[in-house]
Amino acid sequence: MGFANPTANGKNFSPGAGTYQHTSSVGRQSDSTKPTKPSYVFGNGSRQGETKVFYSKEHAEKDMPRVSPGPVVCNTTSSVGMQPSSVKPTNPSWVLGSESRFKYEHAERASKIPGAGQYEADVALGQQTMSKKKSLPSYSFGTGGREQLRKVFISKDHTKDLSGTNSPGPATVELVGSVGKQVSSKKKSSAAWGFGSAKRFVYNTHKAPGPGAYEPQ
Q: Is the distance from CB of 170 to CB of 159 less than 8 angstroms?
């Protein structure tokens, strides 16, 4: 079995399969008759850049709180005092006057009158120095001992109850002897005898010779 010569009949040679260089149908098409399909790649941007991508109005409304500044970012002006914004009315304000005091004569006289707390008020307790005020009796704690307390007179009944307390004991009184001369005029002194105290030989012994005075012859 043989092959026929393609040029034998005088016809042109037709290239076979794989002879043509076909362009890829994936990716960008160089042929204008073929539309290029959309292609997608992995992005290399950061997450911060992704937040700036606009998708739709609905996405923008949801991302509004994240894009808005925080509570301390805006420099808000005070609502008290002078308002720099023309749309906000400034409320009336009051200040303390700087005018000097005691400008008038009656005010100057009033300034020389002593106010409350300037007078030295006398104490209402204790001894009163003014004759119009009566001094009330005052009581204090005594400094005496218990021995002096027994001598204080309270009433007659107390004195009767303490009569035995202040009386001397049985061996305290110095009793006078009942023998001998009595010093009390109510008691009579009994008769007493004593030994004589005269001196001996008061007489003249030369007049009367005693025994042995004679010389017998």
A: no
* Per-residue pLDDT reduced to its tens digit, 158-179: 877 777 776 777 777 777 888 8
- Give, rounded to a whole angstrom, the gap between the first and last alpha carbons of the chain: 248
Q: 108: Cβ–Cβ under 8 A, 6 or more apart, which residues?
A: 102
66: which 2 tokens? Answer: 């994240």
Report how far residue 85's alpha carbon sits from residue 57's, in angstroms, rounded to the nearest whole number.
Answer: 32
Residue 166 and residue 150: Cα distance in Å, rounded? 8
pTM listed for this prediction: 0.17
Element (H, E) at 22: none
Return the percent helix, strand and coil in the chain, to nearest 5: 15, 0, 85
Look up tokens 């002879």; give the residue. 19
Q: Locate 157 and state its tokens.
A: 């009944």
CA distances, 187 to each of 130, 170, 174 (Å): 65, 22, 17
- 49-86 pLDDT, tens digit per residue, is 777 788 888 887 777 766 667 666 777 788 888 888 88
